[in-house]
Amino acid sequence: MIKPVSGMIRMRGLAAILLSAGGAFAQAGGAPGAMVNQLPLSGRTAQSGSVAATESPVPGTTTSVNTINPTLQVSGSYAGSTGSTATLPFSGKLSLREAVERALKYNLGAVGMAQALRQARGQQLVARSSLLPNLNGALHEFDEKIDLKAQGLGSIPNLGASLPSVVGPFHYFDLRATLTQTVADMTALNNYRSSKEIVRSNQYSAEDAQDLIVFAVGGAYLQVIAAAARVESVRAQLETARVLYSQTSQKRSVGLLAQTDVNRSQVQALTQQQRLVSLQNDLAKQKINLARMVGLPASDGYVLSENIPFSAAPSIALEEALKQALAKRADLRAAEAQAQAAQFSRSAARDERLPSLSVSADYGLIGTGPTQSNGTYTLVGTLRIPIWQGGRTEGDIEQADAALAQRRAEIEDLRGRIESDIRDAYLDLEAAGSQVEVAAKNAQVTKETLDLTRQRFDAGVTDNVEVVQAQESVAGAELDYINSVFAHNLAKLSLARAIGGAAESLPQFLKLQ
């Protein structure tokens, strides 16, 4: 016997409206009530990584005064990328604007959020499908032989007639289209509404990821600029140290200086050379790190076409910045959308107690062949009335309530964190701005002191101890200034991220041309 492709043949030509408590609908080819979309307890996810700026006081180079030492920490997918040069050629010179544009397309954080958004949209389509008509077609072909006696049909009572014990074999086919439609199911409807909010949340999360990418790439670009400035500063100090070593060697050759003075000058030159090697190594690594973020080959074989000097921060009052952040931050909008999704999921859980109505119908041809067939149909209406679900509804409600409470707590925490980010950025701006001013004056004074000390040394008034000390002071003052400018620029970038819409406001905060 060839079994049917799917299901059993039902009685044809019978139109029935069945009222049931759930079982009859399943028997008639329908489905049980919709299940609630269970959301995770927390709406936060670390799968895309993080970007954060830290400000740690470290001992100053020239004095015992502590200075701010900024560090940008990028982890997870924001530190990686897909290749961009195949579709976007690279000239070998990288501006900040180009770095940001490449990163917004090819950084792995952006790619990951784009795919997460696609996945959420797919889940929305799945949730919507339970509310839309479902139409299927099937062809069944049968070859059967039936034992009627085994099924209790061996004779007809009161007539004395008997039926053959075996019927068949006989052959027939069934070509049929089936339509199912949910008429009223509040659980399925609220599941769909929840999925729409999840899509909206992912859209805002993608926008927030763009802000984080701008923050990460902008900070990495600033770090490369600072690293290059340190290299140039130490290279200049090395040249100065070599000139001093040459002078002391000449004076030693005519007996004007002791060998200890020559050795001291040589040690100073070798120390600067060691510093240069270390800083060049750090610069190369910083450039490779930046290249990895923007989709360029992992190499330091490119140059930055843009230098970002010190500039005053935009004149935005603290209260105005807080107001803009609460209105523009995409992560806050995403958290609010997640809370709305949790609200709909809770409604879906509660609606499991309500009746649901659905209809199913089919129409097809059945017979021994295409020319010997008759049209048949079935129409079923099902009203499903939940009576007892073994505690499933109460469990779904409990889980949905927990998820909603967690979402609301996360929104409250995020508002506080936004305010904290704004205030931290303003504090860093104030401290770094003052530090730049002091470091600039210190660099000027130490250079004047070095010039005067070298004049005294050339005149034979002093030995090279004071010259070496003055050189160290100049080197430290220049490094302090470089660190201060970087700290100030990074603080402005942090403020742009804290307010939101960093990609649009980046030229305003860093004074890009």
User: Widest sheet: strand order?
Assistant: 1-11-10-8-5
Strand content: 15-25%
Number of domains: 1
Distance between the termini: 81 Å
Radius of gyration: 38 Å
Principal-axis shape equals elongated
Predict the CATH topology.
Outer membrane efflux proteins (OEP)
The top-level CATH class is Mainly Alpha
* Poorly predicted runs of 5 or more residues: 1-31, 59-64
Structural class: alpha+beta
- What's the helical proportion of residues? 55-70%
| Beta strand count | 11
The CATH architecture assignment turns out to be Up-down Bundle
Record the SSE blueprint.
Elements: E1 14-20, H1 23-27, E2 50-59, E3 66-75, E4 93-94, H2 96-106, H3 108-129, E5 134-147, E6 155-156, E7 161-162, E8 166-184, H4 186-253, H5 259-294, E9 303-304, H6 318-328, H7 330-350, E10 356-369, E11 372-384, H8 392-458, H9 464-499, H10 502-510
Parallel strand pairs: 1-11, 4-9
Antiparallel strand pairs: 2-3, 5-8, 6-7, 8-10, 10-11
Helix pairs in contact: 2-3, 2-4, 3-4, 4-5, 4-7, 4-9, 6-8, 7-8, 8-9, 9-10
What does this structure look like?
By secondary structure, the chain is of the alpha+beta class. It has one domain: Outer membrane efflux proteins (OEP) (Up-down Bundle), CATH 1.20.1600.10. It is built from 10 helices and 11 strands. It has helices at 23-27, 96-106, 108-129, 186-253, 259-294, 318-328, 330-350, 392-458, 464-499, 502-510, and strands at residues 14-20, 50-59, 66-75, 93-94, 134-147, 155-156, 161-162, 166-184, 303-304, 356-369, 372-384. Strands 1-11-10-8-5 form a 5-stranded mixed beta sheet. Strands 2-3 form a two-stranded antiparallel ribbon. The longest helix has 68 residues, at 186-253. The radius of gyration is 38 Å and the shape is elongated. The chain starts with 13 loop residues before the first strand and ends with a helix. Residues 1-31 and 59-64 have low confidence and may be disordered.
